[in-house]
Amino acid sequence: MPPGSITAVVGPNGAGKSTLFKCLIGLESPIQGTIHIDSTDIMHNPRALNGKIAYLAENIGVYDQLTIRQSLNYAASLHLMNAPDVNQSVQELSKELAIDDRLDVKLSKLSKGLRQCVAIAQAIIHSPSIILLDEPSSGLDPEARHRVINLFKKLQQNGATLLISTHLLSEIESYYSNLLIIKDGCLIRPEDVSNAQTNRTLIKLKMDGGQASVIKELEFNPKVIFQERMADGVTFYFNGDKEQQAELLKNLVSLNSTISSFEVVPEDLQNKYLESMKRNGSS
Amino acid sequence: MNPELQKQISSLETKTNLILTIGTLLGLAWFIDKHLFSLGLESLSLFSFAMFCTISGSRKIARALYSEVKSNVWNAQRFSQISPPTLLIGKLIGPALHSWVVGSVCIGVYLWQAKDKSDGLETTCIAILITFLCHALALAYALLQVQQNRIRRKDASILFYPLVILFVLPHITEIFLPAIAEIKELLKQCLWYGRNYNTYNFLASSLLGGVTFAILAAYRMLCAELRIKHLPFVWFFFILTIGVFISGFFTGTGLVDASRNILSCSVLVACLLSYFTGVMLKVPEENYSILKKALLSKNWREFSQESPLWLLSISIGTVIGLINTVIGIDPIFKNELITNLGVVSLTIAIITLRDLIFLHHLRLCLQNRASEFYFIILLGTINILLPSLDLPVGGTKPIFSDTAIVLAVNLILALCFFKLALRTHQKILTTATQQVVQKS
Q1: Is A139 left (phi over 0), alpha (psi -120 to 50) or beta?
Q2: How sure is the predictor about B55, in pLDDT bands with cuts at 50, 70 and 90?
Q3: Is residue A192 part of a domain?
Q4: Contact: A186, B75; criterion CB under 8 Å
Q5: Yes or no, beta carbons of B79 and A25 under 8 Å apart
Q6: Cα Rg for chain B, rounded, in angstroms?
Q7: Structural domain span for residue A120
Q8: Closest residue by Cα to residue B6 from B62, B103, B102, B82
Q9: What is the model's pLDDT at position B256?
Q10: What is the ipTM of this complex?
């Protein structure tokens, strides 16, 4: 995982995302293999990177009897922070997550979303460089979600590496740089799928006539992978740049077919994920 | 201030609650003193201390940890930079702070009412030591439970434990059981290593030793939770200390006798602890992978750090048994008490090793109930067919009169079971790897 990146870890429930996170921070041991973070063998030195890594567990709990300020102070003291740094971090994070007006309110009196904000603040209060977040947006309203996304982006800009496990694919689409899909404990797409690097486009073609010749032409084209055939057209993946797309369209028009539309469908993360699942035998 | 203690204080019940409890207690003491003196305020206050501080405090310490685990905040502490001593002080004193305040009021009333002040002070010291012991044991037990609950294996059936004692353990119980009655008598006289001790001093020193080990146990459990690895010196000293303590009751002032008795007794303690931890505690499968890796790479440090308690105990028992064999070949039994066991102690250690390797082999390849069933049946049969030792105590008739032959037979059996366990573990790993490769 490159430093300063945001990696989305997605997969069905029970795929092993949370277990992977626990193995990464040394809270669980894998039966085989090794884990290295910043050249440190986590299995041999599980506490070596505690100060550098932040971990937000799924359904993280908070101390109901404590106020937000006491909770954040306690989280900071767990990471041996100095008092002046603690105060500054508490002020900054609470402002960032819009909980600064409730600092002296007990956590038992807060809503689920606000408690999740406190949990996020607790996890990252010690300014870590590697941040593992398991379902960070769970229970957050759209506004809070927006604030949290901005916080993640800010952390990334400051050089932190984020690994986020989530089911909300549409949400992370705007800021992830790598995607890892896990199913049954296995990485089903080992190569990183970068938003920027992909040269493949999904094209939806609609025709009013001459379909047979168009389909024949597409079948012979090695850059084309069919996705769906419909009565009035076809959807396919095309591996090529814009010039090659234009060349393809020119060829298809020259086949005496009536092409009513040639549309490049923006491929979203949801599609990528579902396609990966389909390839790997998911229902 | 200790952050853990500060957090625990902030999470404690309200101050009003505390003031009300103390007020009620003092009012009750005054009322009993004025109107119902025949009830005996002295014993009543001591009883209240036991209830409010010893029992309730221990419960609160264990409950505080369970609730942290249940509400998902425990992992944040495990994954922090806080030091184990800081956490230990916080977890040991924090949740029981309320109990200590109430308990000190009870003790105050007790001392005020005590007829003999010097006796009262002695009793107070003993009561406080017992309370510390209970609190430390409660924390150690709660930490152990938390670790055990994380391992995805069902607990053994309740029937399993008495059956183990009946069928598998007679070679140790035959030696220990007759000795218990005599040790009890000697404990009353406080005759230890041939010298008479003041009962109070002896009890207080023994309790102090117990408190030290209980706190060390809680500390080590906490270290394991925080993923800090240590060499198992504490466990080694614990076994040796128990050996020293027990053998003191049937040993005179002679140094040679004492050292031989201590070593013999330590082997028996190690074997008993090995059975206890091996049967009671679950060990995750990945632990054996790490052990195997350490063994193959001859990384003895890692091997001893990662060894489960049953393996550690029996390793210590075997090493002491070997020393015993070298320094005292002829076993001596006096008045049915354990003295110099000689080569017998090594044989007992090897039998224990044989049994526990077999149990763990079964646990690796079979489901819970099936592994327990086969363990009892097969080892019960082996122990009946091969009455293991030519001991002058106990009722079994030996097949082999020479202990060395018994030792050799059991060593061969232990090695066979070890080979089987290794093969089963390799099979598990190969299957897991194949599954992952196929899916990938």
Answers
A1: left
A2: very high
A3: no
A4: no
A5: yes
A6: 25
A7: 6-187
A8: B82
A9: 75
A10: 0.73
